[in-house]
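Service request form, structural biology core

Requester: graduate student, group of Dr. S.
Request type: structure prediction, single chain
Budget code: on file
Notes: please return the result as structure tokens.

Sequence provided:
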Amino acid sequence: MTNTPLSNDDAFSRIVQIQVETAQLLRDMGNRLDRLIEISERQAETASRNADTVSRFVSVIGEQARTVSDITRSVREAIDASRAAAHAAEATAVLAQSNQVAIRDLIEELRLARGQS
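Core staff response, request fulfilled:
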């Protein structure tokens, strides 16, 4: 296969063909670039929505953590109140028993005092 020189018409035709092919490649590249820009814009919008969603999720988790903390504090306070009530009930029971013994003793003293008069 030998290279034969091209005639001016053949060379011109070849140049025109290369220009047409190059123009088509540039149009295709432009179309692909436009498509990439559209995809990038949609991805940016999706990323923004995802960031908003994550932010709201973190806010909800933070609120739940505060609620759990409040509930835990309330439970501790309820336990402390129950302990205090139990101690008060014990003290009341001891006092009631002491009063019962005192009343029995007074009744006995009254009985004895009536019997002596």
